[in-house]
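Form 12-C: Joint structure prediction
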Amino acid sequence: MPIYNAPVQDIQFLLQDVLNVTETGVPGYEDLEADFTSAVLEEAGKVARDVLAPLNLSGDQEGCTLENGVVRTPKGFDKAFAAMKDGGWTALDCDPEYGGQGLPYLMGTAVGEILVSANMAFNMYQGLTHGAYSAIHAHGTDEQKAKYLPKMVSCDWTGTMNLTEPHCGTDLGLMRTKADPQDDGSYAITGQKIFISAGEHDLAENIIHLVLAKAAGGPDGIKGVSLFIVPKFLVNDDGSLGDRNGVTVGSIEHKMGIHGNATCVMNYDGAKGWLLGDLHKGMKAMFTMMNEARLGVGLQGYAVAEAAYQNAVAYANDRLQGRAVTGAENPSGPADPLIVHPDIRRNLMDQKSFVEGARAFTFWGAHLIDRSVRMDDADAEGLISLMTPVIKGFQTDKGFEMAVNAQQVWGGHGYIEENGMSQFVRDARIAQIYEGANGIQSLDLVGRKLAQDGGKHVMAFFEMIKSFIKENSEDERMKPFNDALKAGSKDLQAAAMYFMQNGMKNPNNALSGSYDFMHMMGHVCLGFMWARMAKAAFAAQDAGTGDATFLATKIATGRYYMARHMPATGMHLARIESGAEPVMALAAEAF
Amino acid sequence: MPIYNAPVQDIQFLLQDVLNVTETGVPGYEDLEADFTSAVLEEAGKVARDVLAPLNLSGDQEGCTLENGVVRTPKGFDKAFAAMKDGGWTALDCDPEYGGQGLPYLMGTAVGEILVSANMAFNMYQGLTHGAYSAIHAHGTDEQKAKYLPKMVSCDWTGTMNLTEPHCGTDLGLMRTKADPQDDGSYAITGQKIFISAGEHDLAENIIHLVLAKAAGGPDGIKGVSLFIVPKFLVNDDGSLGDRNGVTVGSIEHKMGIHGNATCVMNYDGAKGWLLGDLHKGMKAMFTMMNEARLGVGLQGYAVAEAAYQNAVAYANDRLQGRAVTGAENPSGPADPLIVHPDIRRNLMDQKSFVEGARAFTFWGAHLIDRSVRMDDADAEGLISLMTPVIKGFQTDKGFEMAVNAQQVWGGHGYIEENGMSQFVRDARIAQIYEGANGIQSLDLVGRKLAQDGGKHVMAFFEMIKSFIKENSEDERMKPFNDALKAGSKDLQAAAMYFMQNGMKNPNNALSGSYDFMHMMGHVCLGFMWARMAKAAFAAQDAGTGDATFLATKIATGRYYMARHMPATGMHLARIESGAEPVMALAAEAF
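Section 2 - Result
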């Protein structure tokens, strides 16, 4: 069975040495002293290792079942869910007014990584609830908040997000689900939603569905949709559960992965719903959660890769096959372990340097969200808005690629389901698709975010890199980091310039390069993170603090990223600068 | 259910316009007139579309089962196998002396692509038989050939290759299976083999296992192993089947993909076997088949991608979502089809230009094998020996990547098993692993093939490209092809030079870059193929022959490859030139 150990030392390094959380002045961060964060992470690591990880493979193999309208989750999920609730893990970064612990989003993200690495499918029951909690918290009336949030914070009730319909996923303007206003102020919701994660299951007393639907009187298309709260069981004024609402599960999907999470077709037959936020402003309500939700999916990308990586390392150390070309390293054994071979190293270093860079990028993103929410920092909000599609799109693409790499280390044994490496690949795959497929992320980045507020945020990002390089130019040890970052940033700016100069006359010139731009920007962001991590590691070395081996490893891993991942920016630039012509040359019939 | 239509026009273009088969002087190619090859391909296409493709998804969902030592293949496989036999598809390029049709290997390859695209798992029953046939044909005594080959050519009996054991895959020197000589000239084979494709099933009367085992008296390690013929049922002198041999299936694997093919643990308990080829020269006998077997796997890489691509195109034309940024293209409909969007185009063009380039590369490889076998052309043999790891490693990596891309076009629907896109991804994945994992291919390329015969073959390849560019430098239309090919070839030569200069002092400098070199060389080879295809298309345009739309599409697709795939060589070169240091920096414990 696959192993998993929480990378507490790496996370602590980011929180305490790179982000220097207690010195940021963000309200709430003053509590994040090293001893405290370490204790939380260690505890989360225990739950992940002892409770969640042991159910990952069995949950995949067993999957969910639907019988007579009841969805059963895999064996052990109920007890594990109870353990999560009892430990308070579902309430970590929720509002204390509704029973949450009020920790910063950054801390929720750090713990979230650990839980997702251990069992991605399981953690989605709680993850979706958190998303629905956030929507109600941001847009609900006081009454709605009082009614739903305490039970959702504790995960006695779980939540869902209902957007997709059979004929529309990306293009929600085509939506057909209807909301008819009723005399009592509620709406009757009618329609079918598909791909609803955790839409029905046996882990909670009630499920609070958030449903996008069209009410009459609004503008056509996407601008006219509204968001509704549709509980599975109606909630009485005293908080007790009332009648079953007119929402049922039609079927559950047979998917490539995340078998432990029930993906449901949900039928709404005049179900009672209550408007959440303003009428015809449903997308606005959705969008306020989008940065968090997409960051959460970007986290899944590297978190699953981390778990896969740990198992690739274990196998590479364990499996004896061949001899090191430079001389036997295990002369008393029948062969050397795989890890002596340069190509295995290349593979593992690709994984390790990506995962650690992505973790830093994600934590930085979570920190920006905290700044935006807790300090009303508009610059931080603009920056995370820019970074969100990169965190989601780049990290899930690379996370999947790295899970595939990890599986490859296992050779033929990686293809056998019982060894668990296939599951990492199959699970990681969905993160590239849901919460806006990665092509849509690139469109959001190039079509919207780059030019947002007059391009202010991307300019700020370039400036940030420039200043960083300048500040650290005196330190010779930083040279490989500064040089590679500078080259990558230059490529990225050239691409942005290409879009500006050529996108005006033909927007296809920009959109044909959007995917490459997203990846390019991902590399520059991870390169920037590695430069910051290297700086922190050198500082700790200079101060004689920290674990010397850990710091040396961190620096060497960063050097690998700069040498071996960053050269991708040149390739992406060349692709971008070839423009729309090769991409759009063919008639649709010629494919 | 997924669709599949054989790309006959593309294949004909390669055979008749690019390779000009009838003018090559290869014995047997004189029969490959356009009408004849077209008829064969059309017929193969019908079998693929009507018989094999309809069983692909159901075969995946049902899988194989083992009960009381009997393996059952999925429903319909038996009838389809009978249809393949009746149509003579199993005997296409086999020796007429044993009932084959004697067509060139190139023709077997072209038909093979079509069958694999339609149903990869199914086609492996025949593919493995062909491999075993080739080994016996090349190394068997006249008696062995007479005894086994006719039934294997007709696929009344199928074949297997038994190499891997639980503790050794790549490093076969660790092999434990033993062969004890018996008084009657046979050997008693004892040991366990794993990952044996088609090791047991219900499609044939008998199964002829080829088993690597150690007989006493040979050198230690891999050099001492021998190859044995071990039939499931012993064959009497009159050709009738005798006693059941001491070989049984222990279990079948639960795999990520190719569910329709039974992957078996085979137990040999003193099974009767007969030496094939020379004692202690088993690896030599295996290696003579390796070019063919690896080319066959490289073919699987792009053949599955072709099938996935066709279904991505169908969905992109069918699914209405969003509007073209340059103005509605389906104004009377609720939205435009996906194919109007530049990022969908980028994705589809990546697939299309790869698949068509890989097909050309594979056919060129098959042609080199024909030259080597039918004309004793030592240069062709050297060249295909050099290209084999590239065909296998690069094409299966990219083929998988493109299957993933095709799945991505389907969005959330691509993640649902019933739509078949997941199966393409899961099936394609194995091709990167078996028949020598791709890391091993890169080691073979850089550690062995580059320097083979004093580097003669790689030099010949560079010379071939140089001459081609020179010959076509006057034609302005060829400029984008010549320029990109020249740049890629220059990068590749720089990498080879780096290995020469730095690999001597530390072989890890070469081996740390082997994987990148394999990919780089793959791009240069496909770039070369595209330049040759463009040249042929321009020639046909000039002559006013052929289908004008087809030719224009071919040229545009090639221009895409040159503009958008070829820039990868620069990235790979930069990775290679960073040397072993970043790759090998960490102690094994630091991972």
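Section 3 - Comments
The CA atoms of residues 512 and 582 of chain B lie 9 Å apart. The mean pLDDT of chain B is 97.
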